[in-house]
Structure formats: C-alpha cells, structure tokens
Amino acid sequence: MLTPAFILSLILGYFFLLMGIAYLTGKGADNQTFFTANRSSPWYLVAFGMVGASLSGVTFISVPGWVGDSGFSYFQVVMGYWAGYFIVAFILLPIYYRQNLTSIYEYLNLRFGTNSHRVGAISFFISRILGASFRLFLVAIVLQQFIFDAWRVPFEATVMLSVLLIWVYTHRGGIKTIVWTDTLQTALMVLAVILSLIMIYRSFESTGLELSSVVEMERYTKIFVLDDFMQRNHFIKSFIGGVFITICMTGLDQDMMQKNLTCRTLKAAKTNMIVFSIVMVLVTFLFLVLGAMIFVYADQNQILIPLMDGSPKTDLLFPEIALNGGLGLGIGIIFILGLIAAAYSSADSALTSLTTSFCVDFLKMDKCNEVKQKTLRKKTHLWMSAVLVLVVIAFKHILDRNVIDGLLTVASYTYGPLLGLFAFGIFTPYKIRDHKVWAVVGISIGIIFFIGNLSSEVLGGYQIGYELLPLNGLITFIGLLLIRTDEKATI
Questions:
Q1: Which of 19, 129, 139, 234 would bridge with 57, disulfide CB 3.0–4.6 Å?
Q2: Residue 112 burial by CB count (10 A; 0-12/13-18/19+): exposed, middle or buried?
Q3: Backbone Cα Rg of the chain
Q4: How far is residue 252 from each of residues 55, 238, 255, 475, measured CA to CA in Å?
Q5: Residue 463 pLDDT > 70, yes or no?
Q6: If 0-12 CB within 10 Å is exposed, 13-18 middle and 19+ buried, where does residue 454 land?
Q7: Of 318, 343, 393, the residue nearest 146 (C-alpha)
Q8: What single string gives the DSSP state of each residue in 260-322?
C-alpha cells in the first residue's frame, strides 16, 4: 500500500535528482545559457526530451481517461500531428535559423512591425500560461487526492509546492538544464507506460484471460469516425485540426521551438523534429492502449470512476487503479514517478519559455547591459511562477471537462492569430498597416468565439471540433489582406 508519506518521499527523491542535474548544467550559466543553451545541444537529446514536454501529465492521465468516452478516435488527431511536424521542420525552422532568433516572435517584428510582434507574443503568452496551467492542474488534483487530502493540506498549498520545486531547479541553467532533465523525464514516462501495460496485461493472464479475447476491449479501440461528417470527431475534422494544432502548438510556440533553436545547425534541428514526431506518435498510441486496458480492468474489478466535487472524473481512473487497484506496490511507484516526470517535463520548459518571451518580446532585454539583463531575467522567472500558481488555482473552480479536450479547445482561440500572422508573413510578399493588426485579431477572435458557442441545432446538426483553429487563422489572414500595403517585404 502506497501511503501519502511514501509517495511524498518518492517525489522529493526525484526532485533531488533533478537538482543534481541542474547543478551540473547550471555551472557558469549566463543569459545565453538560460535562453539558448549556447546553441550546443545534441539533436537526439532535444528530440527525445521534447516527447515528454509535448505529452506531459495531460497525456499521461487524460488520454487514457478520455478513451472511456471517445475510444481511440483521438489517434485521428495524432495522425494530423505527425503531418504537421513535417511542415514545422521544412517551412518554419529554416526561417527561425536564418534570422538567428532567440524569441520566434521577433520574426513578426522584422516582417511587419512592433504591433504585430506584440500581438504574437501576447497570443503565445496567454496560450502557454493556459496550456501549462492545464497540465499542472491535472497533476495537482492527483497529488491532492492521493497525498495531501489525507493531511488536510489545501489545494492551493499543493499547487504552490509544485511550482516552487520547478522554479528551484530551472532558475539558473534555464533551457540548458531543461534539455537534460526533459531527457530523463521522458525516459521515465515512457518506461512507466510500458511497465503499466505489462502489469495490467499480466493481471488479465492471472485470471485466465487473453487480452485479445476480452470482448470489452472492442468498445474502446475504434480509431476512425467516418460515417457522419456532422460528428465533432469525424476523421477529416480531427486530422486537419491535428495538423494545425501541431503547426501552432509546436511550430509557432516559443516553448517548443526554444528547444529546437538550441541545436547546433538547422540540419540537426530538422532531424530532431522528424525523429521526435515518430516517437511521439508511437508513445501516444501506447497511452491509448493503456486507456482501453484500464477501463476493462475497472469493469472487471468493479472499480468506480473517482469523483471530484461530486462528479465522476475519468482523468483520475488511471491513478486510482495504479495506486488503489490491487496491482501491487510496483505499479504505484512506477505511476508516481511517471506522473511527476510528465508534469515537470512540460511545466519547467513552459516556465523558461514564458520568461524568455517576456524578457525579449516585452522588456526588450537586449537593450540592457549584462547585469541588468540577469536581474530582469530572475525577477521575470519568479513572477511567471506566481502567475502559473494563480491560474492553476482558478482552474479548480471553472474547469468542467476532460483536460486534454479543454486544452485543445482553448488553443483554437489563442493560437489562431499566430497562425494567420505567420502564414501571411511566409506566403505573401506584402507589408501591412501594423497599427491596425489589433483590430484584425480582436475581430477574428470575436467571430470564432461566436461560432464556437453555436449549438449543433442551429448548425443543422453539425458539431464543431478542432477546425476552429484553422478557421481562426484563415479569418486573421483575410483581415491582414484587407490592411495590406503595396510595399513589399525585405525579408
């Protein structure tokens, strides 16, 4: 039996391991180390570490939990992800390397002007705060339910402790530390899902069942939704949505691109992206298989979906089975280590990228001397930590859906302007009336918000899915066409 004290000791032991890595990678660190790792990261470390940052605690818990409602249909979105990674590798990365960027939103300043630069940075800022908070929230509610509730520790304290631990080991080495810690954390997360699959499979064998003969598995393993285009998760809508989610949440996201920009050369960064995409797809499929298996296991052993605030929360089923499902101490230890690895691998890089973007895009840190730059960076890093704490706490009171579904839905609103701005900059030669870009983006988001809240009855039975993201980008693109000038761009 995993007691709260034992679980906490595992977390603290893992944290001290991360601190050791941070100490080694943070020696002699300066601002360039924090922001770009001196552009010296081996591509294979970046590729493997990005898997953990992309999957995070959301995938570790929420994807298996989502299988109960939607089967394997999420894999349609993942197939779109894979196509999107090639677009990032061969269209966006060359632009970033050619301009030698620290923050990728500096491209918008070079291409259009200050207002576009600010719009891009603000869109990322909101997107990444919400995304990182979604991920931290999921881990915090698990820690709360299985550790801190037993000690009557409030949820707010759990969140503050989680963010404090992340701040401690990232505040010196920044992205250089994260490249190495993410590699460790990804390895632990992948190992956790593989060992969990093996242990649950053995539990089926011990009862005389072969997994292929468990009829209940068929309820959860359907991938393709092709019969009704009106459905929210139809293949075409899911695939296209997945492509654009990847372009935006990876290729137009400072968090993910900051790791790529630490590679020595563009060729290394491209190789990193392609290898990462293959590993990412395979690992996500393993999580879907795990999801089907935990629901079958729960059905066979009369394990109920845990409640949160009086309602069933499928995101908590995997932790319930791992920690209290009678599978032994081993799977509980594996789950805790995998969960914490998944949580830290996304939250630490988010904290660093938010610090980078705010320092470069808003504070114009490059115009300050070295001493002033270091002071600004440290203060910003601390303030970003405080913002994450506040938003995660707020989510406890407002979030009412599966976390990964919520994360992808929010992306439709916040990443759309980035998609439109970068697409216009890359695929047209025109400059724009930069001071009017705020109006274009505001109108686009307003239209998308209106469309996104239309009921299926109003739309003749059509259910809106992740196609809102490319639609938002398209509306922004059209708006930029309306404010273009005849002057041609010079980059």
A1: 139
A2: buried
A3: 22
A4: 17, 20, 9, 17
A5: yes
A6: exposed
A7: 318
A8: HTTBSSHHHHHHHHHHHHHHHHHHHHHHHHHHHHHHHHHHHTTPPPPEETTEE-GGGHHHHHH
* pTM tops 0.70: yes
Are 452 and 429 in contact, with CB atoms under 8 Å apart?
Answer: no
What DSSP character marks residue 490? -
* Count of beta carbons in the 10 Å neighbourhood of residue 78: 23
179 with 39: CB under 8 angstroms?
no
Count CB atoms within 10 A of the CB of residue 59.
27
Report the alpha-carbon distance of residue 20 to residue 8 in Å, rounded: 19
C-beta of residue 342 within 8 angstroms of C-beta of residue 59: yes
Mean pLDDT of 444-455: 89
Query: Hey, what amino acid is at 245?
Result: I
For the ranges 3-7, 30-34, 36-40, 56-60, the maximum mean pLDDT occurs at 3-7
Neighbours of 205 (CB within 10 A): 10
**Residue 485 parent element (H or E):** strand 484-488
CB atoms closer than 10 angstroms to residue 292: 22
Q: Express each pLDDT in 260-305 by its tens digit.
A: 888 889 999 999 899 989 988 998 999 899 999 888 888 888 888 8
Q: How many CA within 13 A on the CB side of residue 238?
A: 22
Tokens of 258: 């900051």
Residue among 170, 159, 166 nearest 134 (CA): 159
Confidence class for position 464, pLDDT limits 50, 70, 90: confident
CB atoms within 10 A of CB 306: 19
CA distance 219 to 223: 11
Task: Give the rounded distance of the alpha carbon of 244 from its chain centre.
Answer: 14
Instruction: Note the pLDDT of residue 333.
Output: 85
Question: Do the Cβ atoms of 380 and 363 come closer than 8 Å?
Answer: yes
Least confident of 201-205, 245-249, 390-394: 201-205
63 with 74: CB under 8 angstroms?
Answer: yes
- Report percent pLDDT > 90 for the chain: 27
pLDDT digits over 132-167, tens only? Answer: 787 788 778 877 877 788 888 899 998 998 888 888
Q: Tell me the CA distances in angstroms from 48 to 173, 184, 245, 262, one per residue in order.
A: 19, 9, 20, 14
- Per-residue pLDDT of 409-449, as tens digits, reads 677 788 899 999 999 999 999 999 999 999 999 999 999 98
